[in-house]
Amino acid sequence: MRILAVDDDAVFLMLLQHVLGSLGYRELVCVNSGAEALALLREPDHGFDCVLLDIEMPVMNGIELCRRIRNMPAHKDLPIVMITAMTSIDYVEPAFRAGANDYVHKPINQLEMNTRLGMVSVLVEERLRRLLLETRLSTDFGLPTLNVRFEDPISLTEAGSVVDWLALENYALTLGRLRLSGHDVIAFRVTNALAIFGATDSIGYIDTMANVASVLDNALRSGNHLIAFAGEGDFVAMIDHAAGLDPEMLQDTIELAMDRYKQVHSGLGIPLPQITVGRPTRAGLFNRTSVSRLFHDARQNARDKVTIK
């Protein structure tokens, strides 16, 4: 992978170069400011597979830089990993909300960095696979197209608190057991998602799920939250337990909001999304429930609720 590292600390960049080199990542470009990073990213000749951003930088901090990178169409899917010496959890959520995919702490742990970059490599390979297929389809049929599978946790980042699926998982992992136990996890299932997928093309499907994400984001606005699309019509949200989720009230709010799209969907011949709200689940402080199990249980709860209906 070709990696861009942004940090105002020249000594840290030298250390990072040594650590990454020992892990086999030798295509590393280092800059000292957000302005330099943006200038490089605007040049088509500089193709990067991953960006490592320090949060604490003068003039433009890493969170603002991450937000600006995400606003660049060519880099909306570029993997971004935040690096910081700060231990406060207050900086974690804004980083993911700005579009970060992952988060590591200084001083750099070689094993942790290798694990994180291994996950990034998977993202890069998937991104290249889609790009090659989309290019081939576009060449064959002469039309711009996207290749999306129903099970794909596609990126829907138009709404303010909507993040990528991997980013939500990584955010939950950074919280630790104590802070994780202070969050509710709730799933929302678009029960007719497969029918929507079959009734339109990939772009239409993505647009429809983006509308659902916006509705869910607004419905959860009363509590501090992050939400991601998990694929197969499932959305998963993490929200402060103090918000006191009421699934029945959420259901009514969501149905009322979706009614506004009824005429548009009727005109397009695309089924209006039907959304079922699951029951909030929470990790116990003293049990060993993993993040993946917690998310799985939340999704299963929403699916079971559909079956009961």
Automatic annotation (TrEMBL):
Residues 2-121 form the Response regulatory domain. The keyword Phosphoprotein applies. PROSITE patterns: RESPONSE_REGULATORY. InterPro entries: CheY-like_superfamily, Sig_transdc_resp-reg_receiver. This is Response regulator. Keywords: Phosphoprotein, Two-component regulatory system. It comes from the Bacteria. Gene3D superfamilies: 3.40.50.2300. The modification 4-aspartylphosphate is found at residue 54.
